[in-house]
Amino acid sequence: MNPYQTHALEGANPVELTIALYDGIVRFMNQAIHAVELNDTDQRRAAVKRAMDIVMHLQVTLDRKQGGEPAEALTEFYTAIFALMLQGSQANSRQKFEQVIANVSNVREAWKQALVETALTSANGTGSVSSKFGDVMPHLSVSPREGSWTA
Q1: Cβ neighbours for 143, distance < 8 A, ≥ 6 positions apart
Q2: Which of 7, 27, 105, 129 has the most beta carbons within 10 angstroms of its beta carbon?
């Protein structure tokens, strides 16, 4: 991460940090896809490991007590994404990595919307991003297409 990016994240709220972590997952999955195309096993494994590390961090930092049902849905989402990454790495599968990217990008957009809604709430003087964090977690569900998550 360059110094500008580091500085930008220093003042970020929890939702902005979550979005940045989702961006990291997508970046590492794209690196894994590139490694698959090059048939570079070491690079693929390194990229997948970095993405899995982010998912594990997101999983362990969830506050299930305060987050309630949305936190439980995110727990399931992170478990499914982790499994899909593992399957993709074992099978050297571009398609599985693309599924991870699509699902993570979809939920990332829900976080972005939550950030906008929270900013509007804060602008109206009814709360701050930090105090509203638990209220803005995306609501997730599994779509009829197997393995596809929607917000």
Answers
A1: 149, 150
A2: 129
Please report how many Cα atoms fall inside a 13 Å half-sphere around the Cα of residue 19, on the Cβ side.
Answer: 18
Q: Contact, 105 vs 132, CB < 8 A? A: no
Q: Which DSSP letter does residue 150 get?
A: E
Phi-psi region of 11 (alpha: psi -120 to 50; beta: other; left: phi over 0): alpha
Q: Which residue in the block uniquely carries the two structure tokens 């220093």?
A: 10
Instruction: Provide the residue ranges of all domains of the chain, joining segments of one domain with +.
Output: 13-150
Mean per-residue pLDDT, 111-129: 73
State residue 111's pLDDT score. Answer: 92
C-alpha closest to that of 15 among 105, 110, 123, 100: 110
Q: Which comes out higher in pLDDT, residue 108 or 123?
A: 108
Rounded to 5 degrees, what are φ and ψ at 150?
Answer: -125, 155
Asked whether 137 and 112 are in contact (CB, 8 A), the reply is no
Two tokens at 16?
Answer: 């902005």
